[in-house]
User: Fold this.
Amino acid sequence: MIVANGELGPGARQAARALVRPGDRVIAADGGALHCRALGLTPETVIGDFDSLTPPDLAALEAAGARLVRHPVRKDQTDLELAVRWAVETGADDIVVLAALGGRWDQTLANLLLPALPGLGQARLRLVDGDQQIYLIRGKGRIEGRPGDTVSLIPIGGEARGVTTDGLDYPLQRGTLPFGSTLGVSNALSAEAATVTVEVGTVLCVVIGKGEG
Assistant:
């Protein structure tokens, strides 16, 4: 699990606690370490330029056993990208990112595209915010949730062609999702699981849980 330095409201905080499992590695991207503190977590590693952490914060993290990996302020990647790359390089294959969204559109957009980051290999990267999650589908993917959950398929890097879905209210059979179109927005699960096949291109899959009841 990677905890970024974006927004993590009370509802998202409660959902985040439910995601943590015994044995999970926790990595903080710079000020994400403060979110970890609010969640009652001690990160294994804190990575970034540390512009969001004070010397007392850093001292407390080290005293708690966290490894600090410092990068210069003038760098080519955001702290979150550095954390993602660190996670992959140290063996992670299923990565959940929390607190990746916030008030800055540039940071938020860049974070939402991180599932397409070159170099992830076979690692799965999901951004989670409360009852919402986003991940990448190339080739064939599986969507899990509850009937009625909202599902949106958004093409990136160009149109997605040969898109076939099974288990969604509005099915596609080798359809095309034009880049920049809202055609794939606001579908819904008709079962507890659905499959999506993309013959050409890549889509971001957004799943929004409908909640209880």
